[in-house]
UniProtKB/TrEMBL annotation:
Any one biological process term the GO annotation gives: DNA replication
Signal peptide: 1-21
Keyword Coiled coil part of the UniProt annotation: yes
Pfam families, per the entry: Topo_C_assoc, Topoisom_I, Topoisom_I_N
UniProt-recorded name of the protein: DNA topoisomerase I
Family membership noted in the UniProt record: Belongs to the type IB topoisomerase family.
Catalyzed reactions: ATP-independent breakage of single-stranded DNA, followed by passage and rejoining
InterPro entries referenced in this protein's UniProt entry, alphabetically: DNA_brk_join_enz (IPR011010), DNA_topo_DNA_db_N_dom1 (IPR013034), DNA_topo_DNA_db_N_dom2 (IPR013030), TopoI (IPR001631), TopoI_C_dom (IPR025834), TopoI_cat_a-hlx-sub_euk (IPR014711), TopoI_cat_a/b-sub_euk (IPR014727), TopoI_cat_euk (IPR013500)
Function according to Swiss-Prot or TrEMBL: Releases the supercoiling and torsional tension of DNA introduced during the DNA replication and transcription by transiently cleaving and rejoining one strand of the DNA duplex. Introduces a single-strand break via transesterification at the specific target site 5'-[CT]CCTTp site in duplex DNA. The scissile phosphodiester is attacked by the catalytic tyrosine of the enzyme, resulting in the formation of a DNA-(3'-phosphotyrosyl)-enzyme intermediate and the expulsion of a 5'-OH DNA strand. The free DNA strand then undergoes passage around the unbroken strand thus removing DNA supercoils.
Length: 589
DNA sequence: GGTCTGACTTGACGAAAGTTAC
DNA sequence: GTAACTTTCGTCAAGTCAGACC
């Protein structure tokens, strides 16, 4: 089996394999082989990144104004001005931090004459430039079909040339093969660096990673790479350091690639191993709630939260460099409230904090008594801004988890709990007698339970109310159709009674069928409306893509005769190709 | 142990593409 | 045929985690 797997993989195929134990064996062998020296590939060849197009100067008649007077800007200054002008109707430009950061960085790039003159942002007139870009956008949208086709062909050609690489003998799609264009940094939430200038990436900034014996990509004419290296222990093809946080950005493979697929598979296998030991781990952390060591108590309470509430680990962050957000280990006193009694429940913890992407986490959770008592203890003599778990770091937590199970880290609990919830919910909600639409509602509801657990929110779509209304109109229309059809059936029946001929009989049957069809359509619409309403502020995509073992979904589809296309779109089917191929209806997470 | 940093995953958002309604 | 709406997908920011170093 292992040989077959390797061979199949080399061909870019996924082994079809129904026996789970067999795939387990294949995986562990693969892991063994992979872990020997950390080698990720033997051969890698690609074209390097596709660079953002150079700045196109504004036409003569589009002007920047200062203090009401038109002012010709140097090219570099003009380019940065256009970044701001383009964003004029975005909320960002109303924020003081954004304005100040932008203005600061902009002035740094000005010529000394410009800097002497341009001293206040509020005297800058970007309006004409803004209008120019809005118009340009509309013109592009209104382009005739053939022109659009030409643009598309141009993009396809670039994708074809830069969008693929050769990895260990097969052609693989690259995820992000373009460098990020220059612009103004858009941090999320209350980000202290929002509005700062994100500089243009040049070939001189880029490190290329490929095989020694491959055709090394040529830098654009007149340029050089920062470095060319041959590191087969990492998976990236190119990288550069970005100037806002000085973090490294990478060009990597598409999720559909073998490399990423195998990694994904491995992730779910780790989560499945957790399933086997989770009860033991749970009794252990319960025991630790009574430990004499403060460190252990904090660790065990934090782990309880991570397990029960699917919180993120919560690494420390550098103050003032990013938005103030937290996860489990970085929770502060101000983020929880303890209620001995609340709404008829005992020992309730009220969480209120900003998590990743500054998404608010708000939850009132009844906890076990020892947890509550411990929290009271942790809070003693602390101020709002102090760490709740002052003796705990994600590092020590993960080291502890590693001791409990090989490969176990805090985030595995999120994967495990998400996947097991999906499996349980699907079991509880699916009725094999239902039609496909109703089964899909059950699937979405199961998916939704996970999204709620993981706190995956979305802002209500701008068109939500309207599209809800439209759907309601459709439903009303269908109802009317149904009433009409019923009247017609009555009429047809009366006709049959009077005439008693074949034609009238056929007509009655026809009307009956029509009613059935309309009823079905109506039910489908009503299900759609329910689904939509329940999904108003919940994002299903993130859990589907990152937390739910796809084999659960594939098995469910097979078991209940739901076409896989109903739950996974094209991209998702490509990403989960490994699971679609190997899973049969009996798969258990 | 703590800190720093490189590599990799996760995440919301919005533009583009696709579909439906008129 | 096109406007209106929905879905998909690319983008890039923001996390997690491990290993090096002290």
């Amino acid at each position: 089996v292992y040989k077959a797997l390797t061979a199949a993989s080399l061909l870019g195929l996924w082994i079809c394999n129904s026996a789970l134990t067999v795939s387990d064996v294949a995986l562990s062998r693969w892991q063994e082989e992979k872990s020997d020296d950390g080698v990720k590939w033997k051969q890698l060849e690609h074209q390097g990144p596709y660079f953002a197009p150079p700045y196109e100067p504004l036409p003569e008649d589009v002007q920047f104004y200062y203090d009401g007077q038109p002012m010709k800007l140097s090219l570099a200054t003009e380019e940065i001005a256009t970044f701001y002008a383009k964003m004029l109707d975005h909320e960002y430009t109303t924020k003081v931090v954004f304005q100040e950061n932008f203005f600061n960085d902009w002035r740094k790039e000005m010529t000394s004459e410009e800097r002497k003159k341009i001293k206040h942002l509020e005297k800058c007139g970007f309006g004409e430039m803004h209008k120019y870009f809005v118009d340009k956008n509309e013109t592009r949208k209104a382009l005739p079909k053939e022109e659009k086709q030409k643009l598309k062909e141009g993009a396809d050609k670039i994708q074809e040339e830069f969008g693929y690489c050769i990895l260990d003998g097969h052609r693989e799609k690259i995820g992000n093969f373009k460098t990020e264009p220059p612009g103004l940094f858009r941090g999320r939430g209350d980000h202290p660096k929002m509005g700062m200038l994100k500089k243009r990436i040049m070939p001189e900034d880029v490190i290329i990673n490929c095989s020694k014996d491959s055709k090394i990509p040529a830098p654009p004419p007149g340029h050089k790479w920062k470095e060319v290296r041959f590191d087969n222990k990492v998976t990236w093809l190119a990288s550069w350091t970005e100037n806002i946080q000085s973090s490294i950005k990478y060009i990597m493979l598409n999720p559909s690639s073998k490399l990423k697929g195998e990694k994904d598979w491995q992730k779910y296998e780790v989560a499945r191993r957790l399933k086997g030991v989770v009860n033991k781990i749970r009794s252990q952390y319960r025991a630790d709630w009574k430990s004499k060591e403060m460190k252990k108590r904090q660790r065990s309470v934090a782990l309880y939260f991570i397990d029960k509430l699917a919180l993120r680990a919560g690494n420390e962050k550098e103050e003032g460099e990013t938005a103030d957000t937290v996860g489990c280990c970085s929770l502060r006193v101000e983020h929880i409230k303890l209620h001995p009694k609340l709404d008829g429940q005992e020992y309730v913890v009220e969480f209120d904090f900003l998590g990743k992407d500054s998404i608010r986490y708000y939850n009132k959770v009844p906890v076990e008594k020892p947890v509550f008592k411990n929290l009271q203890l942790f809070l003693e003599n602390k101020d709002d801004g102090d760490d709740l778990f002052d003796r705990l770091s994600t590092n020590t937590l993960n080291k502890h988890l590693q001791d409990l199970m090989d490969g176990l880290t805090a985030k595995v609990f999120r994967t495990y709990n998400a996947s097991i919830t999906l499996q349980e919910q699907l079991k509880a909600l699916t009725d094999s007698e239902d039609n496909v639409a109703a089964k899909l509602l059950s699937y979405n509801r199961a998916n939704r339970a996970v999204a709620i657990l993981c706190n995956h929110q979305r802002s209500t779509p701008k068109t939500f109310e309207k599209s809800m209304q439209n759907l309601q109109t459709k439903i009303d229309g269908k109802k009317e159709q149904l009433t009409d059809a019923r009247v017609e059936l009555k009429r047809a029946k009366a006709d049959l009674k009077a005439k008693k001929d074949v034609r009238s009989k056929a007509n009655v049957e026809k009307k009956k069928k029509l009613i059935e069809k309309i009823k079905e359509q109506l039910a489908k619409l009503e299900i759609q409306a329910t689904d939509k309403e329940e999904n108003k502020q919940i994002a299903l995509g993130t859990s589907k893509l990152n937390y739910l073992d796809p084999r659960i979904s594939v098995a469910w589809c097979k078991k209940f005769g739901v076409p896989i296309e109903k739950i996974y779109n094209k991209m998702q089917r490509e990403k989960f190709a490994w699971a679609i191929d190997m899973t049969d209806e009996d798969f258990e997470f």
